[in-house]
Design a protein that fits this description.
Blueprint: H1 10-21, E1 28-32, H2 39-50, H3 63-70, E2 76-79, H4 88-100, E3 108-112, H5 120-131, E4 137-143, H6 151-154, E5 158-161, H7 167-177, H8 182-192, H9 196-205, H10 208-224, H11 230-238, H12 243-263, H13 270-287, H14 292-303
Parallel strand pairs: 1-4, 1-5, 2-3, 3-4
Bound molecules: zinc ion.
Length: 307
């Protein structure tokens, strides 16, 4: 598999290909994006491409590519967090291995997964390598939280940011993986929020159908219960780890209701529109640092037309 199999990161891939074609490879590169955005896949493709002789690298088939894919390339070093952090000992070991390698024209590639989990000494150790990089060494740092990295490391990196996929790209991705009904496609795309890893994980879990049923049940409670009962419901939901997903599912339920209503040429969608607007606002707020319980209370009250 080559870069052409990656969906929805055209700009980033163009930048990678350009630097490969010009042989202008920075020795420090950062791939950032949320978990599931495809950092690992892209970094491994780039690692293959760096040592692949094919005119349009990576070919995925030559010995070097295959060794990189299987993790057995002698010039590929992969560092994963041990427990909750990447420790100085792991960097010492890496430094020692790098110092013994002959310089033979092939790139020595160090992939650091979860680079935001570098301890301060480990971060400083990387910084030292980056300040005086050994010949032909290329670092690929991967992180979902790049802002946590040492500024001194960040400033040396070429930053490749993985963007959320558009709905069209998500649809294209799902269509390569499974034969789903349009309703299921829409649900997955809505729940995954542009994150390909999340969509594929849900595809294999099937649990999202229960999520939809639960959303219907919760909204039913919010629409029909006494106003006073909305407060404990807000409290209950505010504790949930998957609150953002629940809210995304609420939106989907309302959109389907709106579609249904409009397809019948029906009027009286005012209440639905109001609820949708309140939901958009809630979704936006949940991305920030907000009092979740209060935000939910306000949503429920708006939905019921109380405020
Ligand atoms: Zn190759």
């Amino acid at each position: 598999m080559g870069f052409e199999h990656i969906i929805g990161q055209d700009l980033l891939i163009r930048a990678l290909k350009r630097s490969l074609a010009r042989k202008e490879i920075n020795h420090a590169n950062l791939f950032s994006g949320p978990p599931g955005s495809g950092k690992r896949t892209l970094a491994l493709l780039f690692a293959q491409a760096l040592n692949c002789a094919h005119p349009n690298p990576p070919c995925g088939l030559c010995l070097s590519c295959r060794k990189t894919i299987s993790g057995n390339h002698p010039n590929l070093f992969q560092i994963e967090p041990q427990g909750a952090s990447i420790k100085i000992e792991q960097l010492r070991e890496l430094k020692e291995k790098l110092s013994y390698l002959p310089t033979e024209g092939t790139k020595k590639i160090c992939i650091i997964y979860g680079a935001d989990l570098l301890t301060l000494p480990a971060g400083n150790s990387i910084l030292k390598i980056l300040e005086e990089p050994p010949e032909d060494v290329v670092f690929l740092l991967l992180s979902a939280r790049p802002w946590v990295l040492l500024q001194t490391i960040l400033s040396r990196c070429t930053h490749f940011l993985l963007k959320p996929l558009s709905d069209e790209d998500m649809l294209a991705l799902l269509q390569t993986k499974a034969n789903l009904s349009p309703a299921k496609q829409e649900l997955l795309i809505s729940l995954a929020g542009g994150n390909p890893g999340k969509a594929l994980a849900m595809l294999s879990q099937e649990g999202w159908q229960e999520k939809l049923a639960e959303a219907h049940e919760l909204l039913g409670r919010a629409e029909n219960s006494a106003i006073g009962e909305l407060f404990p419901l807000a409290e209950e939901l505010s504790q949930r780890d998957d609150l953002q997903e629940i809210v995304a599912t609420f939106l989907l339920v309302y959109r389907q209701k709106l579609h249904h209503l409009l397809s019948k040429g029906g009027n009286g969608s005012f209440g639905l529109e109001r609820a949708c607007r309140a939901l958009f606002k809630l979704q936006e707020e949940l991305f920030g640092t907000v009092n979740r319980r209060l935000a939910l209370e306000v949503f429920f009250l708006k939905m019921r037309g109380v405020v």
